[in-house]
Amino acid sequence: MSVNLLDLLKDQVTGSLVSNASKFLGTSSDNTSSAISSIFPALLGKLVDQGADDQEGAKSILDLVKGTDDSILDDIGGIFSKGSGSVNGLLNSGSGLLSALLGNKVGGIVDLIAGSSGMKSSATSSLLKMAAPFIFGIIKRQVANKGISGLMGLLSGQKNHVKSALPAGMGSLLGLSSLGGDLIGKAKGAVGGGVDAGKRVVGGSMDAGKKVVGGTMDAGKKVVGGGVDAGKKAMGGAANMAGSAVDTASSAGGSIFKWLIPAVLILGIAGYFGLNKTGCNAIDSAADTVSNTAGSVVEGAGDMAKGAADAAGDAAKGAADMVGGAFSNINEAAKGALSSIKFAAGSAGSQMMDFIDGGFKGDGKVTFKNLTFASGSAAISGSTAAEVDNLAAILKAYPDVKIQIDGYTDSTGNADSNVTLSQSRADAVKSRLVAQGIDGSRLMTTGHGAANPVASNDTKEGQAQNRRIEATILK
């Protein structure tokens, strides 16, 4: 009986990893545990799909396994107790493994698990990287010197364990066709099953009709007409049942199956006009041709749809990479610390995290909502500086990101003085960011005075909206 790797991970890794990772990331143990319960089956499922039945896939996995330091299994707590440097080593190792195993699917997995576990995407991403080396370490200890055949046998034995543990939607996201988790595979299976069912019903009914007709002919009885009529009724019922099967299949596979309905009706008409041996054989052959052709069309359509989906995914990823290229370099320790920050709703930090977690869609501009200055001054008011500090925390996590800081005023007072004041306030935000450890070369400032108002300057409320600081990511 094959060992259950998920049980081994649960016994040897999960408890300690959840305890230490939740403290490091600033997340609750319940949310972290929920995320881990999805992460391990997802990663193992991808490994099984890639290497259980494919020697080349298994070879690629074995190369990754051999490069994994399985000693991490012996002292999980020690990794975290040694500080951020040790954890960063774990994160970097996991990042490489995920890139090799999952490619461009990492973001989708993070979003799915974050949504189901209640963790933030940034914390989920870090936890996914932390978890990867442990599953490779477990596999390394199991296969030892057993080579590719040993690895393939181990992975093959995990199929049922993974099927029962995969979170909803994960099989489709990862395209785990060998585990029955690929949506396209499911559609093809439903369509094929519908066509096969129709074929079996039609074939069975035709066989029954043939037996009735043949029997009446052989016996010389006067029930030939009744036999034909029975065949006609059987065929009519078969046509209706096959039509329903095709309708069901069509709903799963798409409008491509509409052309099958006339073919089934033709079979019914053939039954109406009588069934002799030759006619039944011809109909049998036609049914086989229709079914087999339909199966080929479905498979081709499924492959085309999968290819189109993959191409669309690649295109979307390429666009996101272009927009979010500045975010590719990550300080994992600083990113992990973001999970402990409670961003005020609508704050600059909240807007920036939404931009990152949302796949870098939009113009990358955020507006400080809770930042105020003393009247006519560039001095930041008291606790409102926390909004600047939160933005600094994000910039620390993404050290290649540069921003443009723009200051604006309302239209009251002298225009030149307003430009000077808006520049001073933008510079004050920059100074605060630098004081928080952000390199000043990453920060550009401009004062615009009363230009580009976002509301009417005829009301106090409008003037308050126009007095603002904006930060825009420089691409």
Number of domains: 3
Low-pLDDT residue spans: 181-206, 208-267, 269-275
The helix-strand sequence is: HHHHHHHHHHHHHHHHEHEHEHE
What is the spatial order of strands in the main beta sheet? 1-4-2-3
What does this structure look like?
This protein is mostly helical and 475 residues long. It folds into three domains: 167 residues, no CATH class; 122 residues; 143 residues, 2-Layer Sandwich (60s Ribosomal Protein L30, Chain: A). Helices cover 68% and strands 5% of the residues. It contains 19 helices and four strands. It has a four-stranded mixed sheet. Strand 2, helix 18 and strand 3 form a beta-alpha-beta unit. The chain is elongated and about 80 Å long. It starts with a helix and ends with a strand. 40% of the residues are buried. About 20% of the residues have low confidence.
Q: Brief overview, please?
A:
With 475 residues, the chain is mostly helical. Helix content is 68%, strand content 5%.
List the SSEs and their pairings.
Elements: H1 5-25, H2 29-51, H3 55-66, H4 76-81, H5 84-102, H6 106-117, H7 121-143, H8 147-156, H9 159-165, H10 170-174, H11 183-219, H12 224-253, H13 260-272, H14 277-323, H15 332-337, H16 348-357, E1 365-367, H17 386-397, E2 402-408, H18 415-435, E3 443-447, H19 460-466, E4 468-474
Parallel strand pairs: 2-3
Antiparallel strand pairs: 1-4, 2-4
Helix pairs in contact: 1-2, 1-7, 2-6, 2-7, 2-8, 2-9, 3-7, 3-8, 5-7, 6-7, 11-12, 11-14, 12-13, 13-14, 16-17, 17-18
